[in-house]
From TrEMBL:
Family named by the database record: Belongs to the actin family.
InterPro entries the record matches: Actin, ATPase_NBD
Listed SUPFAM superfamilies: Actin-like ATPase domain
Protein name: Actin related protein
Length: 437
């Protein structure tokens, strides 16, 4: 059996998600490469059943190519790989273009959705060993890695990402599958759709323009945006999937800058100031109450984050429930929206049984006040706290990767790798069942 010392051979860590794929090396605090979980394909002009070109990575996919379809590598509902060939292209790109290493020289630790099927896991193991020639491999559940990133072996992990929100109870380093709840009703994509529709309404039904859909022409010699004329233009052959992908990237940036969660659930129309936001085509829109009302989806009483938390904990053993209420981790992009952690805690206290003590989510104690801190950066102690808060936001955003980075660098972990010889001898199913339950 092959073993790899953490200091001798740098293991590669890849955290796969339905929105982005994060990759880097064991021991690193943040991923070295972040690429979208989509692939651009152009079909052969003579044979439409054959793909003539593949495009991976932000730069390649963002370029307006006639006939290029943009497709997700993963099933957004289940989190599983829906096209293994596309995923192989993504892996090749990560190794060759972003990490600059050979796959056969580094062990690979990869994260997985807590509800991935056995068949999906076996296909993945076959891909990395038989086509990528990985020397050793390990699969770990994303909520487990998020726990390791925060120094926990038992916790309730609320992962609210772009395409879904998943709530999983982790006990002694094992994800409890029976407790896992996943929904697409509460996710970043839904917030994006609401925000995009809001912008269209405010623009009289006119959609956001992607960069390839207009040009700017200066109408005077004065260097002012007001003197710039927007001229829309059409590029023949662009697909709807490419246009939507381009526009959704803009909406995602708007979401980060505009949306806020009401910390107490009470949004007064008259007390909500209007905020002006300049779109990439130079036009301004003003948004007030909607900045908060869009985020109310996250706290729906039937399927919001707090309700999913209670439902997941209730699926666990009675003796474990109090510990889970006191050890909650919030991860994923939606938890970075200002006000979400505080509002989540308020909602959870309201919904939880009276005999349990709900503690503030473990990884949000400092970053919850980041926007207050940003207005008082006068002294060194405040600046230090601000840096800590920013680091904590990064940890929530990349929790699975960070946990994988920590795990793969531990000396005590090195005997846990599935080696190529074990895979050849035992097969994918038996290896995964034995070492990666």
């Amino acid at each position: 059996m092959n073993t790899f010392g953490g200091d001798e051979v740098g293991a590669v860590v890849i955290d796969v998600g339905t929105h982005t794929i994060k990759a880097g090396f064991a021991g690193e605090e943040n991923p070295k490469a972040i690429i979208p979980s989509v692939i651009g394909t152009v079909f052969d002009s003579d044979d439409k059943s054959k793909i003539s070109s593949y495009y991976v990575g932000n730069k390649e996919i963002s370029f307006a190519r006639p006939g290029m379809e943009v497709q997700n590598i993963f099933n957004s509902d289940t989190g599983e790989i829906q096209n293994i060939d596309y995923f192989e292209k993504a892996l090749n790109y990560i190794y060759d273009e972003r990490l600059g290493v050979k796959p056969n020289e580094h062990p690979l630790l990869m994260s997985e959705d807590p509800l991935c099927s056995s068949s999906g896991r076996e296909k993945l193991a076959s891909l990395v060993f038989e086509k990528c020639n990985i020397p050793s491999f390990f699969l770990s559940k994303q909520p487990v890695l998020s726990c390791f990133a925060n120094g926990k072996y038992t916790a309730l992990v609320v992962d609210s990402g772009h395409n879904a929100t998943t709530v999983t109870s982790v006990h002694d380093g094992l994800a409890l599958r029976q407790s896992t709840i996943k929904t697409t009703k509460v996710c970043g994509k839904v917030l994006d759709e609401d925000l995009r529709n809001l912008v269209k309404t405010k623009r009289g039904g006119k959609d956001i323009l992607a960069p390839h859909q207009f040009t700017k022409q200066r109408s005077s010699q004065q260097p002012s945006s007001k003197s710039t004329k927007i001229v829309e233009h059409h590029i023949d052959g662009l697909t709807q999937s490419f246009n939507d992908y381009s526009i959704n990237r803009i909406v995602g940036d708007m979401k980060i800058n505009l949306l806020r969660a009401s910390e107490d659930g009470a949004v007064q129309t008259g007390n909500t100031p209007l905020v002006s936001f300049e779109l990439n085509d130079g036009n301004d829109i003003e948004i007030g109450l909607e900045r908060f009302s869009i985020c109310e989806r996250l706290f729906n009483h039937e399927y919001g984050l707090a309700k999913l938390t209670c439902d997941s904990i209730n699926k666990c053993d009675v003796d474990l429930r109090k510990e889970l209420y006191s050890n909650i981790l919030l991860v994923g992009g939606n938890t970075l929206i200002p006000g979400v952690p505080t509002r989540y805690e308020h909602e959870l206290i309201r919904m939880a049984p009276n005999n349990v003590k709900v503690k503030h989510p473990l990884n949000t104690k400092i970053s919850a006040n980041i926007h207050t801190l940003s207005t008082s950066m006068g002294n060194s102690s405040t600046q230090s706290t601000m840096q800590t808060a920013v680091a904590q936001l990064q940890e929530r955003k990349y929790a699975s990767f960070i946990g994988g980075s920590i795990l793969a660098s531990l000396g005590s972990f090195q005997s846990m790798w599935i080696s190529k010889s074990e895979f050849d001898e035992m097969g994918a199913a038996q290896c995964l069942a034995k070492k990666c339950p």
